[in-house]
Amino acid sequence: MHAVVLAGGRGVRLRPYTTCIPKPLVPIGDRYSILEIILRQLSAQGFRTVTLALGHLGHLIRAYVGDGTQWGLEQVEYVTETVPLGTIGPLVQMRDRLLTDFLVMNGDILTDLDYGDLLRRHTLWGANLTVATYPRQVRIDFGVLTSRDGHIVGFSEKPVIDYRVSMGVYAMNAAALDRYQPGVPLGFDQLVLDLIARGEEPAEYRFSGRWLDIGRPDDYDRANAEFARYGPQLLGEEAC
Q1: What pLDDT digit, counting tens, does each position of 108-155 carry?
Q2: Residues 71-92: pLDDT tens digits?
Q3: Which residue among 65, 157, 184, 219 is least crowded, i.e. fewest CB within 10 A of its CB?
């Protein structure tokens, strides 16, 4: 099993933490970086090779990770963006070096999702793209009106909206990249819309365990505050 970890972002939303270090290397729990936790998880779940897509301060990530053998990986390969290519653009660049089916994930998330199970189910389903999704709720703190032709025809007091979001973890078949030109920026949103337009709807892998996207300072502070409690679960160790 092969995984591609996207670690090239500038981490603008997480400043000032990312002023001098790339976001995947920010420390969690005073012992690990986010990226080290991800690589430990991938190794424990049967992944032996990983490609790291680098960009901003990528040389620091390369120096930190090395060949990945310290975490049980057989090989870590590096691909560097010279210009920002979005979420999917780096994959198009390395299309000829990818396996038929592989895992793709952002390098700034903490989750106890079983990456291996996601990839196995994706392969079983025969999908071009399988998206791991997570439940979210938005509570509207106002009375919401529905109007039509100048009249109020419905009212809901402080409704709660349930929806599912992308976790930033996907399984992909390399054929999904064949229509795109290397070196041109391509976002995940465009890939999904293109697949839907072609009648190749992505599959969904529903997950409801632990998931935290380290995108903002409050997310990062929360992750550090809770790591002593959920860190062993993420790393497959016995609970403290």
Answers
A1: 888 999 999 999 999 999 999 999 999 998 999 999 999 999 999 999
A2: 889 999 998 888 888 889 999 9
A3: 157
149 part of a folded domain = no
The verdict on whether omega for the bond into residue 27 sits within 30 degrees of 0, i.e. cis, is no
Q: Is residue 157 part of a domain?
A: no
Residue 58 within a domain: yes
Question: How far, in Å, CA of 164 to CA of 178, rounded?
Answer: 28
Task: Kindly indicate the confidence band of residue 224, based on its pLDDT and cuts at 50, 70 and 90.
Answer: confident
Q: CA triplet 231, 236, 240: central angle to 5 degrees? A: 50
Q: Say how many domains are in the chain.
A: 1
Q: Which long-range contacts (CB under 8 A, 24 or more apart) does 191-197 make?
A: 191/88, 191/129, 192/129, 192/131, 195/128, 195/129
Its domain, for residue 105, covers 2-133+164-234
CATH of the domain at 109: 3.90.550.10
What is this structure's pTM? Answer: 0.84
CA–CA gap between residue 136 and residue 147 (Å, rounded): 26
| CB hemisphere CA count around 225 (13 angstroms) | 7
How many C-alpha atoms does 207 have within 13 Å on its Cβ side? 23
Element (H, E) at 148: strand 143-148
User: Distance (Å, rounded) from C-alpha 135 to C-alpha 210?
Assistant: 11
Nearest in space to 56 (alpha carbons), one of 95, 133, 108: 108
Pick from 240, 221, 7: which is nearest to 106 by CA?
Answer: 7
Question: Cα–chain-centroid distance for residue 130?
Answer: 12
147 lies in some domain: no
